[in-house]
Amino acid sequence: xxxxxxxxxxxxxxxxxxxxxxxxxxxxxxxxxxxxxxxxxxxxxxxxxxxxxxxxxxxxxxxxxxxxxxxxxxxxxxxxxxxxxxxxxxxxxxxxxxxxxxxxxxxxxxxxxxxxxxxxxxxxxxxxxxxxxxxxxxxxxxxxxxxxxxxxxxxxxxxxxxxxxxxxxxxxxxxxxxxxxxxxxxxxxxxxxxxxxxxxxxxxxxxxxxxxxxxxxxxxxxxxxxxxxxxxxxxxxxxxxxxxxxxxxxxxxxxxxxxxxxxxxxxxxxxxxxxxxxxxxxxxxxxxxxxxxxxxxxxxxxxxxxxxxxxxxxxxxxxxxxxxxxxxxxxxxxxxxxxxxxxxxxxxxxxxxxxxxxxxxxxxxxxxxxxxxxxxxxxxxxxxxx
Length: 386
What we know:
Helix content is 59%, strand content 15%. It is α/β, with parallel strands linked by helices. The chain has three domains: 5-135, Response regulator (Rossmann fold); 146-272, GAF domain (Beta-Lactamase, 2-Layer Sandwich), CATH 3.30.450.40; 274-372. 24% of the residues are buried.
């Protein structure tokens, strides 16, 4: 398999040589110290897998150059912008210009290698996702009237209430975005677990999209910057990338998605509770089953002990020279022990019945959970409200 092609643009020649030496083992590297040389290299070499671009190239801005090249298929599949500043504005500029990742100087060469390799993996994931999309016959209606947008939001809310995994929530939200001709990302933040990020366009979020969502998740529930809007909840965030300012549709989408984010957050809380309940059910079932086995073992062991006692007592009558009074006394001892053993058997039976009832209750609870996960659809795909 051939190495990926990498174009590096930086006006610092010594830094270019350093990057070239560090990356040439894993990439076919081409370097340019100004944008004109970069254009010449692209014309001669053709398409690159990654373009690694400094923000400040003489009097030119790398972000401006990336913005003009993102839509051109003959330049690069992915763009990485790096800068000596790691401010919020710099990171947002990386998203604004269309870069797939943003790096801050000084850059660790090992970390840079790792970042670029992950970006190649990200490209492979996108190709795989695009292949899956092409293999399905998906027809998306993007010409819905404005009045139906509120109805679509209500349908989305209804369907979200029937979702029991974050994957199903993701699919419902992305289906809504496709129908509304919107593009965006969704991030889930399950309790005590790392965040999970998805893109409606590529399936997987780019590193810069992840960075922006993690940066902005502490913002208010609704936060707008340019044509982009993020809707936040403690357990989930939705980033919409193409909400134009001043559009009537934008106001509709903002109202709708502000309600949707609360619905998804509540659903995430329910899923968390339900998963915890399922774990408790399994622990109870394991504990009850193990207790039943221990009771059976104890009962069997007790029976063996009693049989041994009775047998030894009976044999002793033929060995010992006892009076009738002594034999009657020992016989009464055996009878009393057997009577007590019979009472213990009744207790064992009662405890076993209680454990069986407990297992039956757990099974009923599991069946209710299964029924909840298979609800009846209240809406048909052709239904429109309003």
